[in-house]
Amino acid sequence: MDTYIDLTHEVLDRPRSTQKITKKRAWLALDLNTEDWLVTVNEDVKFEINTMIQEMQHHPLPLLLRNPNQFKIPHLRKIYKKCKNILDSGIGFAVIDKFPIDDYHADKIVEIFWTLGQLIGPNVAQKWDGTMVYDVEDTKQTYGYGVRGSATRVELVFHTDNAFGVRVPDYVGLLCKHHAKSGGTSRFCSLYSVHNRMEKKYPKELERLYQPVYFDRQAEHAPSEPKLSFAPFFSWHHDKLRCRANTALIKNAYKILKKKTHPHKYRICTCGNVAKPNQNL
């Protein structure tokens, strides 16, 4: 059995510069205004959501068969188009505030969320077992091999989802029903800004992160398949920066390999540090 899934086809000959990327993509928190990321919901949108739920109740279907073309939702299409523009050409994250989630059963709001998400991109499985909608909550488990951090109370540092996967997702959506009693703060950073900082201050370390490293696949695979994947931290896809940013999975991978330390630890720590605030550019 192979030790890892080989994804080295993503490797480039050399790093590409991001210094000319505009502040729309390479931003700092102080650069942002609320209108850069907030998409507000008006009464027309709420009416369309209510209409969708009524139609779902009158014409039930399995969740996987739902799609936006089954509904007349011009106002919802408008706000999702705005979201997609922010994701593709703006700062890279958007917050819709807010759906009337307290007015309906949670299952119906999830069905709405699933259906409308297809206006951004195709929905895909969240886990190897085919789970399509995944709950983020503290299950009292301990973070480790086969247990996702999102199922525990462990702090999740800046990361991209499915960093170990054959394909990195273009978009990730999160529906918030219950706020955490404490903690649980969502944080974002621009990977273009992280790349810029490394390009200026740590060019050798950046160059190494364009070469492959091991990632723990978090047991999201058949028992007979490799536990690891082997891919570059940074690469480019369709002229956009792609990053498999998950330092925890890299560290776990080298534990699985039974190496006390791995040769790229300093590069990974450097990348994590430049993502912190108060770093001089």
Structure commentary:
- With 281 residues, the chain is an alpha/beta fold.
- It has 2 domains: 1-28 and 157-167 and 187-281, no CATH class; 33-123.
- 29% of the residues lie in helices and 10% in strands.
- It has 7 helices and 7 strands; from the N terminus they run ββααβαααββββαα.
- It has helices at residues 43-58, 74-89, 106-117, 191-201, 203-209, 247-256, 265-274; strands at 4-6, 38-40, 95-97, 212-216, 228-232, 234-237, 240-243.
- The strands form 3 sheets. The protein has a 3-stranded mixed sheet with strand order 1-5-4. The chain has a two-stranded parallel sheet with strand order 2-3. The chain has a two-stranded antiparallel sheet with strand order 6-7.
- The longest helix is centred in the first third of the chain and has 16 residues, at 43-58.
- The protein is globular.
As for the number of domains, it is 2
Cα-atom radius of gyration: 20 Å
- Any idea what the shape is? globular
Provide a count of the helices.
Answer: 7
Parts with pLDDT < 50 across at least 5 consecutive residues: none
- How many beta-strand runs? 7
What labels would you give this structure?
two-stranded parallel sheet, 7 helices, single chain, alpha/beta, 281 residues, three-stranded mixed sheet
Structure described in brief:
With 281 residues, this protein is α/β, with parallel strands linked by helices. It has 7 helices and 7 strands. 29% of the residues lie in helices and 10% in strands.
